[in-house]
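SEQUENCE-TO-STRUCTURE ENTRY
===========================

Subject: a protein chain together with a token-level encoding of how that chain folds.

Sequence line: the amino acid chain in single-letter code, read from start to end.

Question of interest: how does this chain fold, as expressed in backbone structure tokens?
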Amino acid sequence: MSVQLPKSVQLKDITAAAEAIEGEVVKTPTVSAQRLGEAFGCDLHLKLENFQFTGSFKDRGALNKLKNLEPERARAGVIAMSAGNHAQGVAHHAQRLGIPATIVMPEFAPFTKVDRTRGFGAKVVLTGDTLDASAHAAREIAEREGLTFVHPYDDPLIVAGQGTIGLEMLAAVPDLEVLVVPIGGGGLISGIAIAAKAINPDIEIIGVEAALYPSMYQALRDEAPHAGGVTLADGIAVKSPGKLTMAIVEELVSDILLVDEAAIESAIANLAESQKVVAEGAGAAGIAAIASEPGRFAGRKVGSVICGGNIDLRMLAGVLARGLMRDGRMARLRIEIIDRPGQLAKLSQVIGSAGGNIIEVYHQRLFADVPAKRADVDVVVETRNAEHVAEIVAGLAEAGFPSRVLSIRSAESDI
């Protein structure tokens, strides 16, 4: 099968990028994800770009762009706009190469990413309540101060740098049948698609976007753009895809799947538990798509890019805890008791005898909707599974303690 490859970025550009960045970025492993693959019914392989020094694939394109600057442009300095990962990639490699760097970040950028970017020696300007506003400010500063703007995705050198991932994946697993790649602005999937299709024209490329930010999906269908909201996948929360990248995606990508927040959250938890891989929301988007439509990938050799691992530890802890609650391995029970001495000890004995481990207790007398001589006790219990939770509830009822399981949402709102 022959494929019409784009003229804007070609395989020779990607191989040149691979030579330019050789030894200066991590040649990340492509690993077999046997546990997750068995769960999804496919032969799954993960490209671990979360192993890059800055925690994401952005190192590749940023370095390729910087190494191709004319000397006078490098001396004048560069500017970039990013909510985090592109910022760190540009700042890190600019510092290494002795290039002055200014990074414009939106006001909502995670503190950890702002601190890391500053830690790489870049001047950070926090402005804009949207990425588009930050981008506008960055271009104004670039023009005023004579800086070279390093676009996060809509640049041939950036696309070529990201395409080196495709070269490495096909070298590691030559018989991959389908690649599942997250899409923000489109730089990552564009580069990978060009490299992969040049090597194996029959390989299928499938993109993944957060359902709240379906910008590429909508643009390719001539739909009115509508995107926004708070997403775990902030790394791909882009309202406007690139013009260069959209043309490449239209030519080489067979489909774009949209994944909701619940699927992204579950994918983060599944990667951590099953594969011991820490992924941010954007990095887990490919796994969310495969889990959402396993029939589409069943029996096939599938590659997916874990494009970043820069997730806030508090967020990761919350995602993992919520995952345990969804699986029935942690439950919050609301138990009605008579408000007199010894009741807490008795209900603790019932739960312990059933094999549950109490980790938190909330005793509510004044603000619960119960009679004056009774009280509500909320108990968070470690359990084996949903069936075990049902056994504990039954045991409590038999001992005279009516109880009910609180959902994740109601449990959070009551704390």
